[in-house]
Design brief:
single chain; mainly alpha; 5 helices
Length: about 140
């Protein structure tokens, strides 16, 4: 699969998982604080994303399933920290500073999710679902 097609599939599949993530936060916010709801919604979207990425985007991975899952979680640890931090900064600092009041939680969450898309593609393409064998160790002296 060429890179353009892979990026297009990533955007479609990742967009679907992101919509699941974003929509899941609304009912979760009824029973838990905002940042905790963002975290749980991210986990739900992450499960959906893994299944869809593996089936439709990164189909040539040579990694065993257990390794893919472990690496996917590792990449997403960075992603969830980014989304939580960005959600908090937007909601508590940026929006009040600029007087933004229209659906601030939903907008902060959506904006934070958008920030992580490029990094997730790179992480999943080159770490989680990389094609080929395991990465080579750099040789000393070269």
């Amino acid at each position: 699969m060429d890179l353009i097609a892979q990026v297009a599939r990533f955007i479609l599949v990742g967009g679907s998982a992101t919509v699941v993530n974003w929509l899941a936060r609304f009912p979760l916010s009824l029973v838990m604080p905002f940042l905790e709801a963002v975290f749980v919604a991210y986990m739900i979207g992450m499960v959906v994303g893994f299944i869809l990425y593996r089936a439709f985007v990164f189909t040539t991975s040579s990694q065993p399933l257990a390794a893919q899952i472990a690496l996917f979680i590792g990449v997403n640890v960075v992603g969830v920290a980014t989304v939580i931090a960005a959600s908090h900064v937007l909601l508590r600092l940026v929006f009040p500073a600029i007087g933004f009041t229209f659906e601030p939680e939903a907008t902060a969450h959506a904006g934070a999710l958008a920030l992580g898309a490029a990094a997730n593609f790179i992480g999943h393409k080159f770490v989680t679902f990389r094609a080929g064998g395991p990465p080579r160790s750099p040789e000393l002296g070269s």
